[in-house]
C-alpha cells in the first residue's frame, strides 16, 4: 500500500511538472510573439518616422485653434483635402487644385463630413488682394497651401486644423496599393475608352478611378457632377485605407511619399488611425452650390450668403462649434 502511494505521488508529480512545463512553454511562446510584434511595430514606427519626414510640410498658415490639442484630446478635427491636376498624364508642373474638400471627423458621433467646394468659387485672397476677386483654385497657384487655408478659413469661418495635398499620380498609386476600389457610378458615361454604368458597382484600379473622377463636360451637372464622383472615390479610399495597418505600412507610404504633403506628424497619423477610424465608416457628402456668372471676362461660381451660411454651419456643427447667424 505504501509503495502504491509513492508511485501515485510520483505519477501526480510528473503530470504536475509536465503541465507546469507546458504552461511555461506557452508563456514563453506568447512572450516571443509579443517581442516579435513589438519589434515589428518598432521597426514600422521607425520607417514611418523616416517617411513622415518626406511627406511632412508645414503650411505656414495661421491656426484658428490649437490643432495638436484637438487630436491629443480626441476632439472633432478638420482636414483640408487638396488634389492637384499633376503627377500623371505627363503633367509635372505645380498645377492648380482641381479637388478641394473640407473634411471633418467627429469621433464622438462617429461621423465624417466631406464638403466639396467649386474650384471656380469666387473668393478674395487675403495675401493677394491685387489678384482678387479670384477663383479658389488660384489660391494654391499664387500662395500654395498657406494661401488656400488662409482664404478658406476666412471665407467659411471654420478652423482648418490640418491639410493633406495629393496629386493625381499619388492618388492612382494609393488606390492600386490597397487593391482598387468598388464604386457605384451615379450616371452612365464613357471616358477615355472606359464605360461606366449608372447604379452598377465597378471595381476600379487607380487609372480607372482617375478616369471616373476626372470627366466633366459630359456630365449634365458639370463640375458639380465631377465633385460628386470625386467624393465617391475619396469615401471609398477612406473606408479601405484609413487603418492602423495602412498607416504602419511603409510600402504604402513610400509609394505615395513623393506625391503627397501634409502637416500631420507621424504620431498624429497614428492617433488618427487608432482613435478616429470608426468615423470613416459613416460619411456624409455635402457640397457648396454656386451660380455661374461672368465677372471681368472670367467665369466664376458665385455662392450666395444663404448658401455660404448653410455650408459653414454644417461644418461647424460637425466640429461641435457654435453656429453662425
Written description of the protein model:
The longest helix has 54 residues, at 2-55. The termini are far apart. The protein is of the alpha+beta class. It has helices at residues 2-55, 67-72, 138-156, 168-177, 206-214, 223-241, 244-247, 250-257, 266-275, 305-318; strands spanning 77-84, 97-106, 111-116, 122-123, 134-135, 162-167, 181-184, 189-191, 194-196, 201-204, 260-262, 283-287, 291-295, 298-302. It has a 6-stranded mixed β-sheet with strand order 11-6-1-2-3-12, sandwiched between helices. The protein has a two-stranded antiparallel ribbon with strand order 4-5. A two-stranded antiparallel sheet has the order 7-10.
How much strand? 15-25%
Overall pLDDT level: 82
Spans where pLDDT lies below 50 across 5 or more residues: 32-46, 87-93
Task: Report the structural category.
Answer: alpha+beta
What is the topological layout?
Elements: H1 2-55, H2 67-72, E1 77-84, E2 97-106, E3 111-116, E4 122-123, E5 134-135, H3 138-156, E6 162-167, H4 168-177, E7 181-184, E8 189-191, E9 194-196, E10 201-204, H5 206-214, H6 223-241, H7 244-247, H8 250-257, E11 260-262, H9 266-275, E12 283-287, E13 291-295, E14 298-302, H10 305-318
Parallel strand pairs: 1-6, 3-12
Antiparallel strand pairs: 1-2, 2-3, 4-5, 6-11, 7-10, 8-9, 13-14
What is the structure about, briefly put?
The chain is of the alpha+beta class and 325 residues long. The protein has helices spanning 2-55, 67-72, 138-156, 168-177, 206-214, 223-241, 244-247, 250-257, 266-275, 305-318; strands at residues 77-84, 97-106, 111-116, 122-123, 134-135, 162-167, 181-184, 189-191, 194-196, 201-204, 260-262, 283-287, 291-295, 298-302.
Amino acid at each position: 500500500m505504501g509503495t502504491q502511494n509513492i508511485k501515485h505521488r510520483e505519477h501526480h508529480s510528473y503530470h504536475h511538472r509536465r503541465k507546469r512545463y507546458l504552461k511555461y512553454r506557452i508563456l514563453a511562446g506568447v512572450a516571443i510573439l509579443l517581442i516579435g510584434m513589438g519589434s515589428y511595430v518598432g521597426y514600422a514606427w521607425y520607417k514611418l518616422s523616416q517617411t513622415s519626414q518626406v511627406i511632412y510640410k508645414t503650411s505656414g498658415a495661421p491656426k484658428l485653434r490649437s490643432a495638436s490639442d484637438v487630436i491629443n484630446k480626441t476632439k472633432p478635427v478638420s482636414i483640408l483635402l487638396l488634389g492637384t491636376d499633376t503627377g500623371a498624364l505627363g503633367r509635372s508642373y505645380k498645377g492648380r487644385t482641381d479637388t478641394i474638400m473640407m473634411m471633418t471627423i467627429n469621433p464622438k458621433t462617429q461621423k465624417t463630413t466631406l464638403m466639396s467646394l467649386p474650384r471656380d468659387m469666387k473668393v478674395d485672397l487675403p495675401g493677394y488682394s491685387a489678384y482678387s476677386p479670384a477663383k479658389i483654385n488660384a489660391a494654391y497657384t499664387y500662395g500654395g497651401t498657406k494661401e488656400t487655408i488662409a482664404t478658406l478659413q476666412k471665407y467659411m469661418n471654420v478652423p482648418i486644423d490640418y491639410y493633406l495635398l495629393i496629386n493625381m499620380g499619388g492618388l492612382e498609386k494609393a488606390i492600386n496599393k490597397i487593391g482598387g476600389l468598388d464604386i457605384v457610378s451615379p450616371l452612365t458615361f464613357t471616358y477615355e475608352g472606359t464605360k461606366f454604368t449608372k447604379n452598377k458597382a465597378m471595381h476600379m484600379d487607380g487609372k480607372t478611378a482617375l478616369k471616373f473622377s476626372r470627366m466633366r463636360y459630359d456630365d449634365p451637372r458639370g463640375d458639380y457632377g465631377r465633385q460628386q464622383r470625386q467624393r465617391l472615390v475619396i469615401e471609398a479610399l477612406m473606408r479601405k485605407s484609413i487603418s492602423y495597418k495602412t498607416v504602419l505600412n511603409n510600402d504604402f507610404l513610400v509609394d505615395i511619399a513623393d506625391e503627397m504633403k501634409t502637416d500631420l506628424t507621424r504620431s498624429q497619423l497614428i492617433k488618427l488611425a487608432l482613435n478616429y477610424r470608426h468615423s470613416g465608416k459613416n460619411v456624409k457628402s455635402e457640397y457648396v452650390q454656386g451660380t455661374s456668372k461672368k465677372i471681368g471676362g472670367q467665369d466664376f461660381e458665385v455662392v450666395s450668403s444663404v448658401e455660404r451660411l448653410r455650408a459653414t454651419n454644417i461644418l461647424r456643427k460637425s466640429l461641435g462649434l457654435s453656429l453662425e447667424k
